[in-house]
Design brief:
Strand order of the largest sheet: 1-2-3-4-6-8-10-12-14-16-18-20
Radius of gyration: 31 Å
Helix content: 10-25%
Mean pLDDT: 85
Number of strands: 22
Bound molecules: 2-acetamido-2-deoxy-beta-D-glucopyranose
């Protein structure tokens, strides 16, 4: 029998194919502990590429010998088949950093050694739901991020007070109920409890956190006033208390926080005058005071307002701007003041206010939250097309009636 060359070619290709799949699944190249490799596979982490190679995006290994150990693991976009098991987690007790991102697996009780070795834990839109009891087993954690996951707890205190090592904590959009803690660890630098169901007042003890750089308590149901001691938060750079029910005025002590970059007090019931010292904060880039009950003359000049990346002050019905120092071109969303410093009615001038007598003639670009230009373009487009249409019509008319 004569061998058919095409059969021969086919078998050869098949052989090559088998060899290549074999070598890619053989993992002859990784120095990762073989048990950890097995655990990774059981968690659906692709191991076709060496998990210890620096280009592997979801894992980081240490340099121990003869086998490396995993120190960081990110589980992103898990498939539905993935389950966590005690065996896999016990094997992975060398992990210091564990992240779940869009990974809707069921949470299990972490083995004790596994929990206590963790330094950093992130859970974003993952693990279905969590409890405070579950979270505080990670008793040596420094960075905790939980977002878009319901957390059941009697309040944030149990979590923040039980984990004494925390430096940064985010528990946001977690349906967290209760009141803010009255005791805090001095090492906290970052606190984000935004988008929850927290109630009650801002405790004075919060203002003792002199290392706090970032505070976000926005979108809760907090009430009461800003404590006078707020100015003790000397390290603050970003602060948002927006969308709560806070009342009273902005404390004078806030002037001491010279390094503020982002100040968001929007959508509350704050009253009193807007303090001028805000414009002396040299690093300020974002200022939101909109939707409050501030009154009187806005004490800022145009050069300060133009320096800001975002400035919102609209919907404060008793607040007004001085027409001889600020141009209505700034579109602040508040009324002009009369000579007594009261808002001139009718309120907020919009596009229609004619403004040719303005002495303040900087033609810098108007603030970003403005839709004027697109309307103008639209208008011009309609105008042009009508003209073209009219010409065609006239030409046709002239032709047919000749
Ligand atoms: C996860 O899924 C999201 C949305 O489906 C996608 O944008 C993202 O790139 C995915 N990330 C990874 C690491 O696969
Ligand atoms: C604060 O952190 C330092 C080092 O980061 C640590 O030595 C100290 O014990 C911590 N203090 C508290 C109260 O946890
Ligand atoms: C505060 O949290 C809200 C909601 O989570 C977010 O939209 C906002 O950007 C945060 N503000 C700062 C200053 O980080
Ligand atoms: C702090 O605020 C600035 C200015 O708005 C912003 O660019 C930056 O991302 C914020 N930082 C954090 C950690 O939210
Ligand atoms: C601000 O509101 C509080 C009550 O919320 C009121 O007691 C206080 O008099 C008001 N202050 C000013 C300056 O309007
Ligand atoms: C505008 O206000 C800032 C801050 O109060 C001040 O430093 C600056 O000199 C003022 N500029 C003008 C042109 O008045
Ligand atoms: C507006 O500014 C001018 C010039 O600085 C000043 O004379 C006037 O008193 C101010 N008006 C009000 C209502 O503050």
């Amino acid at each position: 029998m004569v061998p058919n060359p095409s059969h021969f070619f086919l078998s050869f290709t098949l052989l090559l194919f088998l060899l290549s799949t074999k070598s890619s699944s053989a993992q002859s190249t990784t120095d990762l502990d073989p048990n950890q490799l097995k655990a990774l596979r059981s968690l659906g982490v692709p191991t076709g590429k060496d998990p210890c190679s620096p280009s592997h995006k979801s894992t980081i290994c240490d340099s121990s010998t003869p086998f490396h150990n995993l120190i960081s693991l990110k589980l992103i976009n898990c498939s539905n088949g993935v389950t966590l098991t005690q065996t896999a987690l016990k094997t992975l007790s060398t992990l210091q950093d564990l992240q779940f991102i869009n990974c809707p697996v069921s949470p299990i009780h972490f083995p004790s050694e596994f929990s206590s070795n963790l330094n950093s834990f992130t859970c974003i839109n993952s693990l279905k739901k969590l409890t405070s009891v579950w979270l505080i087993r990670m008793r040596n954690i420094v960075n905790l991020t939980v977002s878009n996951v319901p957390v059941s707890a009697s309040g944030p205190s149990i979590i923040l007070n039980s984990i004494k090592t925390l430096h940064t904590v985010t528990i946001s959009h977690a349906k967290l109920k209760g009141v803010l803690p009255t005791r805090w660890h001095m090492n906290l630098t970052y606190v984000d409890l935004s988008g929850n169901e927290l109630e009650g007042k801002l405790p004075t003890s919060l203002t003792e956190l002199e290392n706090l750089v970032h505070l976000n308590l926005s979108s809760n149901s907090l009430n009461g006033t800003l404590p006078n001691s707020f100015g003790n938060l000397l390290s603050l750079k970003n602060m948002s208390l927006a969308s709560n029910s806070l009342s009273g005025s902005i404390p004078k002590t806030l002037a001491a926080i010279a390094g503020l970059v982002h100040l968001d007090l929007g959508s509350n019931q704050l009253n009193g005058t807007v303090p001028k010292f805000i414009s002396d904060m040299k690093g300020l880039k974002y200022l939101n005071l909109e939707r409050n009950n501030f009154k009187g003359v806005l004490p800022f000049n145009a050069s300060f307002i133009k320096k800001l990346v975002v400035f919102k002050v609209g919907e404060n019905s008793n607040l007004c701007y001085n027409h001889s120092t600020l141009s209505s071109k700034l579109k602040l969303g508040i009324a002009q003041c009369d000579k007594h410093g009261l808002p001139l009615s009718p309120p907020p001038p919009k596009e229609d206010l004619s403004d040719d007598t303005e002495e303040d003639d900087d033609n810098s670009p108007p603030p970003k939250h403005e839709h004027g230009p697109s309307r103008v373009v639209f208008g011009v487009a309609i105008g042009l097309s009508s003209i073209v249409f009219l010409i065609i019509f006239l030409v046709l008319l002239a032709k047919c009636c000749k």
